[in-house]
Write a structure and sequence with these properties.
By secondary structure, the protein is an alpha+beta fold. It is built from three helices and five strands. The longest helix is centred in the N-terminal third of the chain and has 29 residues.
Length: 100
Amino acid sequence: MKKSEIVKLATLIAKIDDRETMNNVISLIKDQQKIVRASATLVAKAALSVGAKVKVVGGKKIQRREGTDQGIIRKINRTKADVDINGSLWTVPMTMLEVL
């Protein structure tokens, strides 16, 4: 989405003056958010497989505790994967994993 489109959208949202319309807009945004998340998960899941070496992107907690962000996928669930990092098993969202 372009910046000009976002500005137009923000302007339209600012004009909302009743609760029912606001709730309808919020519902539409939540529905679109679910679609975008599901799409990102499908793309990430297609590139992953059990036994693959992966890098955790954005996992500050793992980096701080273990000193590394690389591991091996042990199990793939619906939206998350179990990743073995230095002998510890972490459940990581697939959108945070990159295949090495």
